[in-house]
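Example protein
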Amino acid sequence: METSRKHPLIGVVGVCGSGKTTLVTGLKSFGFDLRHIAQEHSYVATMWQRISNPDILIFLDSSYPETIRRRKLDWTIDEYMEQQRRLAHARQHCHFYLFTDSLTPSEMIERVLGFLEQKGIHSGTDE
């Protein structure tokens, strides 16, 4: 991981309602440097790299019915599938993929923290 930053930049991508905001908020409280990358709204497949070029990319995924339940989204299965298509490049290049349907916010954060610890990536508060 080559970076001139003091701490690795962690990018978070995923479909609407997958838990991106919850994860970013939760991990920031531990002192990590994170970016919520709205790749699902871009027609440019590599926008996630252009926006922030993170050292670590985390991909959160959720089923169509769960996104509706969580966010009360008024969208179609076609719109959900379009987001999945727009996220394909990020999914292929992510360092950690997490399907969040059956996870509580705490469990999701715990799983990502476990991955980061396994990779030797420490928060800004671990110095």
Observations:
- The chain has a mean pLDDT of 88.
